[in-house]
Write a structure and sequence with these properties.
It is built from 10 helices and 5 strands, in the order E-E-E-H-E-H-H-H-H-E-H-H-H-H-H. Strands 3-2-1-4-5 form a 5-stranded mixed beta sheet. Strand 2 and strand 3 form a beta hairpin. Helix 2 packs across helix 5. The longest helix has 16 residues. The model has no long low-confidence stretch (mean pLDDT about 95).
């Protein structure tokens, strides 16, 4: 089946505490080759709730949306999402579990991690040996085995590269999104309307020519060179260049350039059991 999408969006996400997040950036492009543009937030910075509302309002559009957070913890490598804790065993049920246990404002989930530090999450040296917390999903292992960068573990909640806080906040967003928009690969590829997928911005960076070990474009000429490498026209200059903005712009263009590749929708390592318990990152084959 050829995907029907004619609009493409990439969202650089944030799990930071609070209600306004400069770390969130949203870029959108149409079919063709015009560069993606940033979508201005309703206020000075996006809230996670406003991103949820933006998505709901576009559920019927032919829109492919990529989020750069992990949609599920590992299940197979660790034996359960949170061993010793009576958690669900499928992503959607786990999203509800995280939401019910997270009183944080604006769909945050920092308290979920902090209350489980040392048992499931590494937040510092007091929690023990960091390597003991480094578990990965099957798609992450596949990505590394096929030459990708070393992914961050969802249980690592410290440092600039950590994805834990953003991912658990993202799970709350996905829970509240409910059935408004399908989520791949948990749901079949739709023939109309919007679809949400998980992405690695590093995959877009590699496609844009950034060598392994680097993942960010921090100025206009570098961003334009990367956009050109994946078939996009130059971007409209920004008043301020941040990793969040450039990641969103480049990844939206990468989604547009790759949405028609059948092998990305049907990667060889994706089994029914992996779909059922862990999901997959779009772009990993």
């Amino acid at each position: 089946m050829t995907p029907h999408f004619t609009r493409f969006a990439a969202i650089d996400w944030s799990g930071a505490k609070g209600s306004r997040h400069p770390g969130i950036a949203l870029a959108v492009c149409e079919a063709g080759d015009a560069a993606p543009v940033l979508v201005d937030p309703p206020h000075k910075a996006w809230s996670r709730t406003e991103i949820l509302e933006w998505l709901r309002a576009r559920a019927d559009e032919p829109l492919l949306v990529g989020f750069d957070f992990t949609f599920s913890p590992p299940c197979f490598e660790r034996g359960a999402y949170l061993p010793g804790e009576d958690t669900p065993t499928t992503p959607r049920a786990f999203w509800a579990y995280v939401d019910a246990a997270s009183p944080d404002e604006d769909l945050g989930a920092a308290s979920f991690l902090e209350s489980r530090r040392g048992r499931h999450f590494y937040l510092g040296a007091a929690d023990g040996t960091k390597a003991d917390f480094m578990y990965f999903r099957q798609c992450e292992a596949r990505y590394r085995a096929t030459g990708g960068h070393k992914p961050a573990s969802i249980y690592d909640a410290i440092g600039a590269a950590q994805v834990a806080k953003a991912s658990f906040a993202g799970m709350r967003l996905l829970h509240h999104l409910g059935n408004a928009i399908p989520v791949w690969p948990l749901d079949p590829l739709p023939t109309s309307g919007a679809l949400v997928v998980e992405i690695y911005t590093a995959i877009a960076a590699r496609a844009g020519g950034l060598r392994k070990g680097l993942s960010k474009f921090r100025d206009g000429p570098a961003l334009d060179a990367a956009l050109a490498a994946i078939g996009s026209q130059p971007h409209v200059p920004l008043t301020r260049y941040t990793d969040h903005a450039t990641d969103a712009i480049l990844t939206a263009a990468w989604l547009r350039a790759n949405a028609g590749r059948a092998e990305l929708w049907h990667p060889p390592g994706l089994t029914h059991e992996i779909v059922r318990h862990e999901g997959w990152t779009f772009g990993v084959v």
